[in-house]
Amino acid sequence: MGTITWVGILIIVAISAFFIGVFVTKKQFKQDELEQQVEQANNALEQYRQDVADHLASTGKLVSKMKDNYDQLLNHVEETNKLLLADKKQNPNEPFFSKETTEQLQNSLQDRRGNRSSAEAQPADYVVGETGLFTGSQKVSEHSKAS
Fold first, then answer.
1. How many CB atoms lie within 10 A of CB 129?
2. Do residues 121 and 115 lie in contact, with contact meaning Cβ atoms separated by under 8 Å?
3. Buried (b) or exposed (e) across 19-29, using 16+ Cβ within 10 A?
4. 115's torsion region: left (phi>0), alpha (psi -120 to 50) or beta?
5. What is the dihedral of CA 120, 121, 123, 126, to 10 degrees?
6. Quick one: how far is CA 78 from the chain centroid?
7. pTM
8. Measured between alpha carbons, how far is 131 from 125 in angstroms, rounded to an integer?
9. Nearest 10 degrees: CA dihedral of 63, 67, 68, 70?
10. What is the DSSP code string of the chain?
């Protein structure tokens, strides 16, 4: 075996090593890319989990605040109801008008009650005689005197 044969074998091995290296490097590059994508996906998932946890925490605070407000409202309604019922128990039959006013209203109603079913009966607001602008003597206005 001569030197030419060894040089030929060396060139063939070098070319083969070059192509094998390129092939292995491409596979390694793709694998590195996939590892980066996996890492990015894991980071995005972790960020999403943190966002969900923050959202649930703020929702819990809002629900707690809403419950406190509801409890305050319920206590206020109960206290108001107790006050109203206690006031009613203290003064159960307190009239709207005073005794004197009630008597006057009843007397005026009894005075008005008459026979209003006949056709000759006047309405309750009917006034007998001259009233308002039509009372007194006839006066000539200054405007009609001027003309």
1. 6
2. yes
3. eeeeeeeeeee
4. beta
5. 80
6. 24
7. 0.39
8. 12
9. 140
10. --HHHHHHHHHHHHHHHHHHHHHHHHHHHHHHHHHHHHHHHHHHHHHHHHHHHHHHHHHHHHHHHHHHHHHHHHHHHHHHHHHHHHHHHHSTT--SS-HHHHHHHHHHHHHH-S---STTPPPTT---S--GGG-SS----HHHHH-
CA–CA distance, 46 with 69 (Å, rounded to integer): 35
Tokens representing residue 80 in the block: 């108001």
Q: Give me 111's structure tokens.
A: 């005075």
Length of the chain: 147
Give the CA count within 13 Å in the CB-facing half-sphere of 47.
6
Look up residue 54 and give its amino acid: D
pLDDT tens per residue across span 30-87: 888 888 999 999 999 999 999 999 999 999 999 999 999 999 999 999 999 888 887 6
Cβ(124)–Cβ(112) under 8 Å? yes
